[in-house]
Amino acid sequence: MGKGKRKVPGLNQSSTADISFILLIFFLVTTSMDTDTGLPRRLPEWDPNVEEQELTIKERNVMTVKVNMNNEILVKNGKMNRVIDISELKDIAKEFIANPNDDVNLPAIEPYDIEGYGTVNTTIKHVIALDTDLSANYSVYFKVQHELSLAYTELRDAWARRYLGKPLSECDPKTEEPIARAVYASKISETNPKEYGTEQ
Amino acid sequence: MPELNTSSLPDLIFTVLFFFMMVTSMRDITPLVDVKTPTGGSEIVKLEKKSLVSHIYIGPPAKQFRAVMGSADRIQLNEVITDQPEAVREFVIAERESMFEKDKPLMKMSLKVDKNSKMKMLQAVKLELRKAKALNIVYSAGQEKPKN
Fold it and tell me: What is the predicted ipTM?
């Protein structure tokens, strides 16, 4: 028998498939595929002294969205005061925020300086007051938040298309998007400002 | 009948295994409260960077705890179930401690709230989050299925 000519016996690999199958099943069981999605918001800073400030806001600048214990949505602004369906909320909010016809009952349009862009005419002093009953349903509250957020996004998109010549989704997230964001700055405030304040 | 050559089967399975290892993530906690999050449309965004996100679950206790705890909304923080919103503050502090210094201001709280729960618990939790200076929140929600 010549040295170095001995054949190395092959390892029996027929069970490798089974081993990797077991690994595969282990990973299938212990992991989850779902990526987390949601509606991002920023809570207002907590300031225990805020109750001493009395906020004086002109009536035309305020829109109250109230969710009562029966999960009905009541909207009150300078033009209307009634129970609405959730599907109406977005358009009502958009009309209130932008005041396209310069209605005297809707928020005043004022010149406002935006850093890095210039002066724009916008309803910078408007406030949407969200008043939710503590026994109201979360799903209704969430839908209200979602529709209001959508109203702002659509207004910003329309503004970006008109003045920057492109939709919001194509704007530079570092330079152009903050401008569109500042033109229609989100002013959703939860009533009882001491406890809940203004979300952005 | 000729035998089928299965020598490449392990490689095949390994490929599938690696695929799953990459696209999935470890299931972090066992749910003690029943949470079905609401769904929304185009305002729903994906949460990037899982390491920045902490979860707070609010909902009725899971079935096996109903006999003891009733069905009123509870808060789940990691593996602990509580009805005290004040516990959220300690949870935030602990979560913040476990993060890298540069990531601390970027911390996000994902609020997984059951869609049929009442607003009371959520508002109390939000107040505690503000006191703990954890201001970036996400109302966790799924993407609505497009209507055909």
Answer: 0.80
